[in-house]
Specification:
Strand content: over 45%
Distance between the termini: 40 Å
Order of helices and strands: EEEEEEEEEHEE
Helix content: under 10%
Largest sheet: 7 strands, mixed
Number of helices: 1
Number of strands: 11
Radius of gyration: 13 Å
């Protein structure tokens, strides 16, 4: 079992920055990769950033590349998403996710294979 607890988020004006944190506990085997997803009302959850916890790399969706940076801290128990140059269209709920190695290769295409989700944190960007 893995527990994911998000913090951060909030409100900011366009062009500003916010930082999200996700603290993980439980099985390290079950979180071979961790990442961030977001979900707009009426739409499927979409991938934002993905980190392989064994140092295998960090990947970003095109919509956030160059603006968002994901990293691991605290002996890999916490994943941070630094969001810069925020836009009003970034306004949405953000969810932390963790998956076992078998599913890490497909989570960016199919979020339904994510093994564990956090409860989500709201980000609001005003114009």
């Amino acid at each position: 079992q893995v527990q994911l607890v998000e913090s951060g988020g909030g409100s900011v004006q366009a062009g500003g920055s916010l930082k999200l944190s996700c603290r993980a506990s439980g099985s390290t085997y079950s979180r071979s990769c961790m990442g961030w997803f977001r979900q707009y009302p009426g739409k499927e959850r979409e991938w934002v950033a993905l980190i392989y916890t064994d140092g295998g790399g960090t990947y970003y969706a095109d919509s956030v590349k160059g603006r968002f940076t994901a990293s691991q801290v605290n002996a890999k128990n916490t994943v941070v998403l630094q969001m810069d140059s925020l836009k009003p269209e970034d306004t949405v709920m953000y969810y932390c996710a963790a998956a076992r190695n078998t599913y890490c290769y497909t989570v960016t295409e199919d979020p339904t294979v994510v093994n564990y989700w956090g409860h989500g944190t709201q980000v609001t960007v005003s114009s």
